[in-house]
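Researcher: We plan to redesign the surface later, but first we want a full-length starting point. Tokens attached.
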């Protein structure tokens, strides 16, 4: 009897170890898949004008993304479901085995497997001057496009949310045009005061803790300047 009990205990532990090994192997495969998908999304966002916003990684939804950025159609996750995408958070994920719950929780309170492909901080990445009227001069009708590290929610953005250095107040009497959400906004130069920016010299900064531009995290982070961004000419 003692021998049978010992054997039973050993078998139970062996089964548990095997099951844990299977779960770990599936999780490792899913993480590799997520990393491959993230590389494809990053490449898309670099090359294309609009960021990648498709929410489900299946050939049905991806179209020419497969063959251009992915060599083959994306696999299902180890539990037989498509990998998913939350573009506003910069997250690609699998719902996992759903042993904990059926909800998605990116804070780690579920068994989802999550890959964040955007920077953790929310800041201005670049500022680019556009000669919109194509007259070769920095004047009325031109614009500066300001881009962010993460998708943003924007409401009530004004010129007072930004300042310039070398020189100060280089935007003159420009106005801000910002979408409700997106990865960038534009500053348009208009009368009566002309712009005074110097390409490659004028720096743009964000006033501390502005609330007009925030990201989609919870709680939302306001836009900030990790370092001064120099206004460069946009490559057309």
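Model: Full-length starting sequence:
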């Amino acid at each position: 009897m003692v021998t049978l009990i010992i054997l039973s205990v050993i078998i139970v532990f062996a089964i548990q170890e095997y099951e844990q090994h299977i779960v770990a192997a599936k999780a490792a495969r899913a993480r590799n898949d997520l990393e491959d998908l993230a590389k494809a999304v990053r490449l898309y966002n670099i090359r294309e004008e609009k960021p990648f916003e498709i929410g489900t990684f299946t050939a049905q939804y991806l179209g020419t993304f497969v063959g251009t950025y992915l060599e083959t159609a994306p696999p299902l996750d180890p539990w037989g479901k498509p990998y998913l995408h939350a573009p506003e958070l910069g997250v690609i994920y699998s719902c996992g085995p759903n042993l904990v719950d059926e909800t998605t929780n990116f804070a780690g309170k579920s068994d989802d497997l999550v890959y964040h492909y955007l920077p953790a901080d929310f800041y201005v990445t670049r500022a680019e001057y556009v000669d919109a009227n194509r007259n070769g001069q920095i004047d009325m009708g031109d614009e500066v496009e300001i881009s962010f590290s993460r998708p943003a929610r924007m409401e009530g953005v004004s010129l007072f949310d930004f300042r310039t250095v070398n020189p100060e107040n280089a935007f003159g009497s420009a106005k801000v045009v910002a979408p409700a959400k997106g990865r960038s906004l534009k500053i348009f130069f208009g009368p009566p005061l002309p712009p005074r920016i110097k390409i490659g010299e004028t720096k743009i900064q964000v006033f501390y803790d502005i609330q007009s531009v925030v990201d989609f995290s919870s709680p939302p982070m306001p836009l900030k300047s990790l370092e001064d961004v120099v206004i460069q000419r946009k490559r057309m």
